[in-house]
TrEMBL record:
The chain crosses the membrane at residues 12-34, 54-79, 136-153, 159-176, 238-260, 272-290. This is ABC transporter ATP-binding protein/permease. Keywords: ATP-binding, Cell membrane, Membrane, Nucleotide-binding, Transmembrane, Transmembrane helix, Transport. The lineage of its organism: Bacteria, Bacillati, Bacillota, Bacilli, Bacillales. CDD domains: ABC_6TM_Tm287_like (cd18548). Residues 19-301 form the ABC transmembrane type-1 domain.
Length: 580
């Protein structure tokens, strides 16, 4: 409830629509309430007295009331839709903006599947809740109160029937609303699982096909889909059972009303039209209560959704700009790690332990080690994708937390392990690194990344369109473009995270040579599991189990490091070398 209230400021810009909608609804309700009374007069005063002119007059009045009611209904629909749809669009915008600010840890904590459910399902649920509130929440109680008041004034003899029927209906509604609230929370959780599965399957569709695991995936999806179906069924069944149960109670009320009315008509204390009007008002009362209950259920359901939306909007971003950022406008590539410790989870084991090293501007540093030794994690700390738990990372002798994130990341070119490209032209993808890049800039960058040879062969060259995930490129082509995108920034610090794994040895040497000319002042970090990628580095850091166990040039390490020697020996096919 609190979380839904906290979303209400989003209605503020659309307050006029939110006020107009219930006003139009009041008009429709007033006309709905008028009709049975007009009908009663047609029967008791017109038909009973054979007064045709009176019947025609009231008939026209009923028609006018129906037209005014229609205008009220349409007006309410238009304004409630405008208010609710815009309200939801603004929330969606802010949720998206917030996720763009998320640190990697924030993202890991919430999970992509849940985020997709929030942006699609949960926001739709709060939109529906607001729309129904504006349309029906006014209509329900107004119809209810109006009809009860009219029965009190015009058919008081039958009022006791309401005193029995209404409390039963209210108890039923309360019970059903309470139950559906709980059931819909489970529906949302099941929906998260379906979205996570979908996202994982679509992203890995090629692996699934290559391993012929379609049947396995279909079975896995069937499981989560069945769970969602089951939960949806339980929730919908509860909602749908409410209506027949309430109708049953109302019908009993109608029968009792007619029976009591018939006795009074026989006694001459009641007219037939009043009984007819009473049964109509009883149905209106039920409709009023049912629609209120539906809104209540929708609102209860939206509390869970609002809570999940708030969870995103209120996420504490753990990587933020400093309050007083340094004004150093000239970030150079001098990097230092001082006793850095890092763990992916709170109180978890350190993945990086006591990492300390210093790099001069313009140096090339190779980082090598067994898989899982912490190489990628180490370089992710540079652009502050994660922050260390202990120790500090410095650039130009200043803790990187003192720079604005924009400034820090602006100085770093990052080529990730998996070349992530976006749907759009090759030029758009390269300009992702530098928006204002000219054709000449792009040519230089793609030359250095050994990408120009394949781009030149394409009919439309830089205008060539990439499909989503760049599936129309080879792995090596993707890596070359991913490097071009980083090179074009001419960054002070360049990080290549195992980004040449799909590039042949000759092209890799070309890239390394071109880098020396194109980015001669840049500090380069090359993470690789291949010795050939880092063999020419000014210094190589050897990692094992989250620690730097040796550092030096290739030749020095061959003498000083057992770990390096054994990696080199395995890759050069010379068996285990010994320099002792
Ligand atoms: N997002 C994450 N959440 C939790 N643990 C993680 C995460 N990313 C990596 N790890 C763990 O951190 C450790 C170091 O991983 P890292 O990716 O840095 O290794 P690496 O040396 O780069 O390995 P590789 O050569 O295989 O890429 C591994 O044990 C890995 O399981």
């Amino acid at each position: 409830m609190k979380s839904f209230r906290e979303l209400l400021p989003y209605v503020k810009p659309y307050m006029l629509f939110a006020i107009l909608a219930p006003i139009f609804m009041c008009i429709e309700v007033a006309m709905d309430l008028l009709s049975p009374t007009i009908m009663q007069h047609i029967i008791d005063d017109g038909i009973a007295n054979d007064d045709t002119a009176y019947v025609v007059k009231l008939g026209i009045l009923m028609l006018v009331a129906a037209v005014i009611g229609l205008i009220g209904g349409v007006g309410c629909t238009i304004y409630s839709t405008r208010a609710a749809v815009n309200f939801a669009a603004d929330i969606r915008r802010d949720v998206f903006k917030m996720t763009e600010k998320f640190s990697s840890k924030n993202m890991d904590n919430i999970g992509v599947g849940k985020l997709i459910t929030i942006v699609t399902n949960d926001i739709t649920a709060v939109q529906q809740a607001l729309m129904m509130t504006l349309r029906v929440f006014v209509r329900g109680p107004l119809l209810f109160i109006g009809a009860v008041a009219i029965v009190w004034f015009s058919a008081r003899e039958l009022f006791p029937v309401l005193l029995v029927v209404i409390p039963i209906l209210i108890v039923l509604i309360y019970f059903f609303s309470y139950k559906t609230g709980k059931l819909f929370a489970r529906v949302q959780k099941a929906m998260d699982k379906v979205n996570t599965k979908l996202q994982e399957t679509f992203a890995g569709i090629r692996v699934i096909k290559a391993f012929n695991r379609q049947d396995y995936e279909i079975k896995a999806f069937k499981r989560v889909n069945e769970e969602l179906t089951k939960r949806n069924m339980s929730a919908e069944q509860v909602i749908l059972t409410l209506m027949p149960v309430m109708l049953f109670i109302v019908n009993i009320g109608v029968v009792i009303g007619m029976w009591m009315g018939a006795i009074k008509v026989n006694e001459g204390t009641l007219e037939v039209g009043v009984i007819l009007a009473f049964t109509n008002y009883l149905t209106i009362i039920m409709n009023g209560l049912v629609s209120s209950s539906h809104v209540l259920m929708q609102i209860t359901r939206s509390f869970t959704s609002a809570g999940r939306i708030q969870q995103v909007l209120e996420t504490k971003i753990d990587i933020t700009d400093p309050t007083n950022p340094v004004s150093d406008n000239n970030i150079k590539g001098e990097v230092e790690f001082k006793s850095v410790h890092f763990s992916y989870s709170k109180n978890g084991e350190y993945v990086l332990k006591d990492i300390s090293f210093h790099v001069n501007s313009g140096e090339t540093i190779g980082i090598i080690g067994q898989t899982g030794s912490g190489k990628s994690t180490l370089i992710k700390l540079l652009p502050r994708l994660y922050d260390p738990d202990l120790g500090e990372v410095l650039i130009n002798g200043i803790n990187i937390k003192e720079y604005t994130i924009e400034k820090l990341r602006g100085a770093i070119g990052f080529v990730p392990q998996n070349a992530k490209l976006f749907a759009g032209s090759i030029a758009e993808n390269i300009r992702f690194g530098k928006e204002e890049a000219t054709l000449e800039d792009m040519e230089k960058a793609t030359n250095s990344a050994a990408a120009s040879e394949f781009i030149e062969k394409l009919e439309d060259q830089f205008a060539h369109e990439l499909m989503q995930g760049a599936t129309n490129l080879s792995g090596g082509q993707k890596q070359r473009l991913s490097m071009s995108r980083a090179f074009i920034r001419q960054p002070k610090i360049l990080v290549l995270d195992d980004s040449t794994s799909a590039i042949d040895a000759i092209s890799e040497v070309q890239v390394q040579q071109a880098l020396g000319q194109y980015l001669s002042d840049t500090t380069v970090f090359i993470v690789s599991s291949k010795v050939s990628s880092i063999i020419n580095a000014d210094r190589i850091l050897v990692m094992e189990d989250g620690m730097i166990v040796a550092s030096g040039t290739h030749e020095e390490l061959l003498v000083s490091s057992d770990v390096y020697r054994s990696i080199y020996a395995t890759q050069s096919g010379k068996g285990v070398l010994s320099y002792e």
